[in-house]
Design brief:
The chain is an all-beta fold. The protein is globular, with a radius of gyration of 15 Å.
């Protein structure tokens, strides 16, 4: 279970400690560059904008494609858009040891204004039990976030991104990349 406090209040402490690279890799604070993708089987979301913006776009290795939540999936609540209850799930082909995750914001004509602001990332094993959770604060503008797991997390079968707040009512992502040992 996620313990992120009251939903739709800012999640703090999850800022990206990595330097994202143009080719999709990322640099750790130690100067180590990671680029190795884990085997991804499928992705699904609790909400899709239309047939051309399904969740599987975040795993197609094509940054020009995007996943967007359905219109009004994140209604206005207070001074922002609340995405409580909306989850993006990525299933790996097999349980693996994950060393890092990078998420990229929307691209193309939707590159500005449709970013996620914050979320909670949950890593689960094959039985569906939670192995670890991480707060996620996206970098507004590029809408990106990345984190290396030190030590790496063993036995990961799926990732669940629980969306919290967004810039618009139908936010999105272009790519999610997962690294393994």
């Amino acid at each position: 279970a996620i313990d992120a406090g009251p939903m739709c209040t800012p999640i703090v402490g999850g800022a990206s400690p990595l330097t994202l690279q143009a080719d999709g890799g990322f640099m750790l604070p130690s100067g180590v560059l990671l680029r190795r993708d884990a085997g991804i089987a499928w992705a699904d979301a609790g909400s899709n904008y239309n047939a051309s913006s399904w969740a599987d776009h975040v795993i197609d290795s094509r940054p020009e494609t995007n996943w967007f939540a359905a219109a009004q999936a994140c209604p206005v609540r207070g001074s922002g858009h609340c995405c409580a209850g909306l989850t993006l799930t990525i299933m790996l082909q097999a349980s693996t040891t994950v060393t890092g995750v990078v998420m990229y914001g929307p691209t193309g004509s939707s590159a500005n204004g449709y970013d996620l602001l914050d979320a909670q990332l949950e890593l689960r094993n094959a039985a569906g039990s939670t192995l670890d959770t991480f707060p996620v604060e996206f970098i507004v503008g590029p809408g990106s976030w990345g984190r290396a797991f030190q030590p790496p997390i063993s036995g990961v079968q799926s990732l669940h991104l629980h969306l919290n707040r967004a810039e618009q009512h139908d936010p999105g992502l272009s790519e999610v990349r997962i690294w393994r040992q």
